[in-house]
Amino acid sequence: MKEHLREGVIWEELEETERPTILDLKNYIHVPNRIAGLIYEEANSLYMMGRFTNEQMLILDKQLEVFTDVAGACERIKKTPIPLAYSEHLKKFTFLFILILPMGFIHELKYMAIPVVMIIYYAFVGLQLIGEEIEDPFGKDANDLPADQICETVRSSVYEILGVRS
User: Fold this and answer.
1) 47 and 59 in contact (C-beta within 8 Å)?
2) Closest CA relative to residue 97, chosen from 127, 141, 54
3) CA 19, CA 129: separation in Å to the nearest integer?
4) Is the peptide bond before 20 cis (omega within 30 degrees of 0)?
């Protein structure tokens, strides 16, 4: 899911299993949903063979539902940009505010109004840039979510729960 949100899957990060092969997954656009579907198919098969109880199947079904809900929520975050009207309004307001601001300070601060206005300008532009930076939190920039570390922690935890060494 991490790489799906980053506009591509790193196939080398996926572990090869008996079914499906990574080659099969390459035919799908939404790989996380396909993997969830395959897990559900395998669980259903195990349930039909009597290897899962009703309660275990219900728990797994709920977990897969939560996974697809989280995937959808993350995609909505990724695909919802800061509205252009908001961004443009903020830029125009900042420009006009900084243009008018010295007139309010000049009588009180004299020449000190210049550095004060510059500091205020820096703060406003910084807020604008922060808003643009956090617009896509799933990338690999320094300010993005540490998705690689989160995924590695999840992987280690799953292996620990299953009693398998990674």
Assistant:
1) no
2) 127
3) 45
4) yes
Query: Angle at which helices 31-48 and 54-79 pack, to 10 degrees?
Result: 170
**pLDDT attached to residue 121:** 93
Cα–Cα distance for residue pair 123/119, rounded to 1 Å: 6
Can you give the three-state secondary structure of the chain, one letter per residue? Answer: CHHHHCCCCCHHHCCCCCCCCHHHHCCCCCHHHHHHHHHHHHHHHHHHCCCCCHHHHHHHHHHHHHHHHHHHHHHHHHHCCCCHHHHHHHHHHHHHHHHHHHHHHHHHHHHHHHHHHHHHHHHHHHHHHHHHHCCCCCCCCCCCCCHHHHHHHHHHHHHHHHCCCC
What lies within 8 Å, CB to CB, of 40 at 6+ separation is 60, 61, 64
Asked if residue 137 lies in contact with residue 121, where contact means CB atoms within 8 angstroms, the answer is no
| 14 close to 22: Cβ distance less than 8 angstroms | yes
Size (the chain), residues: 166
Q: What predicted TM-score, i.e. pTM, was given to this entire model?
A: 0.68
CA pair distance 71, 65, nearest whole angstrom: 10
pLDDT in tens, 73-106: 999 988 888 888 888 898 899 999 999 999 988 9
